[in-house]
Write a structure and sequence with these properties.
The protein has about 525 residues and is an alpha/beta fold. It has 14 helices and 16 strands. The protein binds 2-deoxy-6-O-sulfo-2-(sulfoamino)-alpha-D-glucopyranose and calcium ion.
Length: about 525
């Protein structure tokens, strides 16, 4: 039987079905009480529709699927505020945005003096490290080691901000480099006498989906089916109609789809030029050799209307998947390293994204809305000796901090708003698990023009209030209308549901102490 290490804080059902309890012989218990390490891999804008363990239509992600097969896949995993900085702040504090103070990407700087789970893990004897995208505007605190990207970072020959507050350029492709640095830290830089927690934060799959040159030619023969809601008319949903994240109108031909010379936003074209200028001669030659013939072909076609819209969707899907190939390969490298280094048996591996993303659903890219595709975020966890299969309970990214603390045997401070997922990972089915989730998005007016909103979702219904320069309520019956096309807020048939959902929303706002900050 495989050697499995026991949790320090709680007994786990072990691989092979054995259950460790308090009556284990003392010596055996002591031998096995080796603390778990934590390897937390978070990507950016990677959505469950583009992971084969969640959705078979588009992507093939064997290494991500391996985590799901050897551990658990959460079917109902959500964020608290679907945007990078806010999402990261919720994750690291275990608190909603109004409690951690990082509401949006445009106005906020993370208060690094506040309590975070890496600091609490350090107090519990862990060594902590962070490598990759940070996006919280102040320098990281609570990490023994960190190397972060300035802002969104660059896919090619990226800069890193080091702990000495220097900016250093590294040659190569970012997803590989973040993985190289992560493996290097685990292998050669950490204190091997301590348990560790490593946060590997990728830029991929963030806009503008620039793939590694070795993957550019993939998926060119594929034509992807349009999502069912690709031609949504937003009837009955004024906030959905007002957004600026449409593939047809807002996805830029040059910046997003690499059609140099095509019509588009000048600032974005300059941004893209800057990205190309980071490349060395070899990278640039491979890039041009691939995209130039597509540019020539695109010019000849003179596409407009529906044909242009669908052409953009196909190019978007291909670029996203090419970028994803590196991500999946590099997750595989981390898993292989953990095996080779003998760490897999006492390391919790987590895979998640800072939020979901639209892959043409409602005609969109980007995120922000409390609608399913961006409210949902992928979540896989592999805990040695823990449950295998799927977990259907409703979980949120504020739950990660208490999970890690409980796993480390550290106390969970009272003011953490998330709930430890450890009972679920142990295969328990707690009778009092939460039955609804709270959401609040603030970044407006801003890029993509998604209006401010908050709401509640339970296993069947979702109530959303869009506010600020609008006052609109939406109610969805997710069973009858999984694509959220029919706002039934004013439908008399849903009067009782509406009342109950309002009550649930009020209860959550009281419980989480959200004064509904209608910032202007
Ligand atoms: C950038 C992107 C946006 C994206 C935000 C936030 N524009 O501003 O499309 O919504 O980041 O993304 S870009 O022209 O700079 O690519 S987040 O994931 O970091 O929150
Ligand atoms: Ca993001």
């Amino acid at each position: 039987m495989k050697k499995v290490h026991l949790l320090t804080a709680a007994a786990l059902p072990l691989a092979g079905g054995a259950i460790f309890t308090a009556c284990q012989p003392k010596q055996q218990k002591q031998e096995q009480q080796k603390p778990f390490n934590i390897v937390y891999i978070m990507t950016d804008d990677h959505t469950a529709q583009m992971m084969s363990c969640y959705d078979q239509r588009y992507a093939h992600t064997p290494n991500l699927d391996r985590i799901a097969q050897e551990g658990v896949l959460f079917t109902n995993s959500f964020v608290a505020n679907s945007l990078s900085g806010p999402s990261r702040a919720c994750m690291i504090t275990g608190k909603h945005s109004h409690k951690n103070g990082f509401y949006d990407n445009t106005h906020c700087k993370f208060d690094g003096t506040q309590q975070t789970f890496p600091k609490l893990l350090q107090q519990a004897g862990y060594e902590t490290a962070l490598i990759g995208k940070w996006h919280l505007e102040t320098l990281p605190t609570g990490f023994d080691h960190w190397e972060i990207l300035p802002g969104q970072g660059s896919y090619y020959n990226p800069d890193f901000i080091t702990q000495e507050n220097d900016t250093v350029q590294v040659h190569g492709y970012l997803t590989n480099i973040i993985t190289d640095k992560s493996i290097e830290w685990m292998e050669n830089q950490r204190d091997k006498n301590k348990p560790f927690c490593l946060l590997i934060h990728h830029k991929a799959q963030h806009r503008n989906w620039m793939a590694d040159t070795c993957n550019l030619r993939l998926y060119e023969d594929k034509t992807f089916p349009l999502p069912d809601t690709f031609y949504d008319d937003y009837e009955g949903r004024p906030a959905a109609a007002a957004q600026e994240m449409s593939i047809l109108k807002d996805m830029d031909l040059v910046y997003d789809l690499k059609m140099t010379g095509a019509e588009g936003n000048k600032g974005l074209a300059q941004g893209y030029e800057g990205m190309l200028n980071r490349m060395d001669a070899e990278q640039r030659a491979a890039w041009d050799a691939f995209y130039n013939p597509i540019i020539e072909d695109f010019k000849k076609q003179h596409l407009t209307g529906k044909a242009l819209y669908e052409w953009k969707f196909q190019r978007y899907m291909r670029d996203y998947l090419k970028t994803l190939k590196s991500l999946d390969d590099n997750v595989g490298r981390v898993l292989d390293y953990l095996d080779k280094a003998g760490l897999a048996e006492n390391t919790l591996v987590i895979y998640t994204s800072d939020q979901g993303f639209y892959m043409g659903e409602h005609g969109w890219f980007d995120k922000r809305f409390m609608y399913e595709e961006s409210f949902h975020t992928p979540l896989l966890m592999r805990l040695p000796g823990g449950k295998k299969g799927t977990i259907d309970q409703m979980v949120q990214n504020i739950d990660y901090a208490p999970t890690f603390l409980e796993l480390a045997g550290a106390p969970i401070p009272e003011d953490i708003q998330g709930v430890s997922l450890l009972p679920l990972l142990k295969g328990e089915n707690p009778a009092d698990w939460r039955t609804s989730l709270y959401y609040h998005f603030y970044e407006y007016p801003a890029e993509h023009m998604v209006k401010r909103h908050y709401g509640v979702r339970n296993d069947r219904y979702k109530l959303i209030h869009f506010y600020n320069d609008i006052d609109e309520w939406e109610l969805y019956d997710l069973k009858e209308d999984p694509h959220e096309l029919h706002n039934v807020y004013s439908d008399p048939a849903y009067a009782e549901v509406k009342k109950q959902m309002h009550h649930e929303l009020d209860s959550l706002q009281i419980m989480y102490d959200d004064p509904i900050r209608e910032l202007n």
